[in-house]
Design brief:
Layout: H1 2-11, H2 14-32, H3 38-49, H4 54-71, H5 73-78, H6 91-99, H7 103-136, H8 141-157, H9 163-177, H10 193-196, H11 207-229, H12 246-251, H13 253-268, H14 274-290, H15 304-327, H16 334-345, H17 352-357, H18 359-383, H19 395-412, H20 418-440, H21 446-468, H22 480-505
Length: 506
């Protein structure tokens, strides 16, 4: 009890609170700008944290982390452009709600969902950190392969309108994932490799630049095309119903619980991340809505459920990723890798000894994460009345601004490497043109992203698992966790078919 009180006292002082408030606002701004991820935000602010006391510095970094993860939903909802890869699954229903005049509900729902996800994963972090951390050690290459398989199966469900086009786009995304260098042999797997060996393309496509192109730049081109065809009126958004009704939240309890669980568990598995969690959560929510007999709105129609599920999972990843980071010293995602680096520079070594020898600091970290989520929700709610003003800017001014910010975001990813920055801008432009052509012809973009994210994860772990098993391809059917994920993958395919068949019989 004494260590708990001491930990809380380290956090509840004016200096720490002000630095965390600053970090939260900065994180929201960085998250809302295309290409500026939570990882980049933590890396940018890390030098300042070194000059602060341990608890204050960690609180600042966690506040930036939570703010950036949540802030990415703002452009996803208002403009259809995810601020970072974590908000990809929020785009579809978020932008549809904005077009239906429900931007206030979408933004408010995203904030509430972010808060619930963050607090839910924090509870899991406090109660089960050592236990879940040990369980995640059971995830070897075979288990990660079948987890990626579950994600790839989702391609069929996010392509409900046209499965063939969706599968084609998923295959295209996986092809993009295989560009670059073979992870085992080191050989280049790109055309004209002798000429491109010394270029940044040898490392493959940068994920964030690709997403900026597919979602941001392509949307600019698409809106410019519509401007040439028809005169568009400036869209006005009224801010009235920010908080979702309690009755609605009660109806979504299954979605909230499943998304929190998915986000926490996937976040705790090193090498996965929120990009996987949000699609798994969205797919699960889709099945829950289909089975609700009309009590919940179907996803893909501009429903609050379609915003809530990925945003809960997205922010649940923050607490989940800290579980292996604090308990084992293994980062759950890229952002926590930077956090571990910051802790070690301060002389703090994450792992079992941290829980044994310095529980005061552990409790302080729990408290800072709790306060970070409160600050994130508070500043997000304050800003809701300001965010929709973006839609009031005439398209002739807004579109060039979004285009410039997209290119700046792509360039900034490379840091001080000028050549790599220009290369990232080129990727964003090319993928923007491809995305524009695909949108004009009603091809879905989400399957490309799924294929791109999960393709390399599936290939690398599949090959490693088979190699470790001595060439035995049946190794995936001998492990309990693999069988569980294979069962989930089969269920994800069969369940929607059963639901559609029952609806047709009624």
């Amino acid at each position: 009890m004494d260590t708990l009180i001491q930990g809380l006292l380290q956090v509840t002082n004016l200096s720490t609170m002000l630095w965390m408030a600053f970090g939260s606002i900065l994180g929201i701004i960085l998250g809302a700008l295309p290409g500026l991820t939570a990882t980049m935000g933590i890396a940018l602010i890390m030098p300042i944290s070194f000059h602060l006391p341990n608890t204050t510095g960690i609180g600042l970094l966690l506040a930036v982390y939570c703010g950036a993860v949540s802030g990415a939903s703002i452009p996803a909802i208002l403009l259809g452009i995810p601020g970072n890869p974590n908000a990809i699954a929020t785009v579809e229903d978020g932008i549809l709600m904005t077009k239906k005049g429900k931007a206030d509900q979408a933004l408010g729902g995203a904030v509430v969902a972010s808060f619930i996800g963050g607090m839910g994963s924090l509870l899991c972090l406090v109660l089960f950190a050592p236990i879940i951390a040990k369980l995640t050690l059971a995830f070897g290459p075979a288990e990660k392969t079948t987890l990626a398989l579950v994600g790839l199966v989702i391609i069929a469900s996010v392509s409900a309108n046209n499965v063939v086009k969706g599968l084609l786009m998923g295959a295209f995304g996986m092809t993009l994932a295989f560009l670059g260098t073979d992870p085992f042999s080191g050989h280049l797997r790109i055309p004209f490799s002798t000429h491109l060996a010394t270029t940044p393309l040898a490392k493959g496509l940068d994920l964030t630049s690709t997403l900026i192109g597919l979602y941001g730049i392509s949307q600019v081109f698409f809106e410019m095309h519509k401007l040439n065809q028809t005169k568009t009126r400036v869209q006005k958004v009224s801010i009235k119903n920010v908080f979702p009704p309690l009755k609605k939240l009660a109806q979504m309890w299954k979605i909230i619980l499943s998304s929190t669980g998915i986000g926490t568990i996937v976040g705790a598995i090193p090498g996965t991340g929120a990009s996987v969690a949000v699609f798994l959560a969205r797919n699960t929510a889709k099945d829950i809505c289909d089975a609700s007999k009309g009590k919940l709105e179907p996803l893909g129609t501009g429903s609050l459920e379609g915003v809530f599920a990925p945003e809960v999972a997205n922010n649940a990843v923050t607490g989940g990723a800290l579980i292996p980071a604090l308990a084992l010293g293994i980062p759950g995602d890229a952002a926590t890798a930077v956090l571990i680096g910051a802790l070690m520079i301060k002389g703090i070594t994450p792992g079992f000894q941290l829980f044994q020898q310095n529980m005061t600091l552990v409790y302080a970290i729990f408290a800072t994460l709790f306060i970070s989520n409160i600050f994130m929700a508070a500043f997000q709610l304050i800003g809701i009345r300001l965010y929709p003003k973006v839609l009031g800017v005439p398209s002739q001014l807004l579109l060039p601004l979004v285009l410039v910010l997209s290119f700046i975001g792509a360039y900034a990813i490379a840091g001080q490497a000028t050549a790599a920055g220009i290369y990232n801008m080129g990727i964003a432009l090319v993928m923007g043109l491809i995305g524009y052509v695909l949108k004009r012809n009603d091809f879905p973009i989400a399957p490309i992203v799924l294929g791109l994210i999960l393709g390399s994860m599936f290939e690398e772990n599949f090959r490693r698992a088979v190699k470790l098993a001595g060439g035995n391809y049946f190794t995936f059917f001998t492990k309990p966790i693999c069988l569980l994920f294979i069962g989930i993958a089969v269920f994800s395919v069969v369940f929607p078919i059963i639901i559609r068949k029952r609806k047709s019989e009624i």
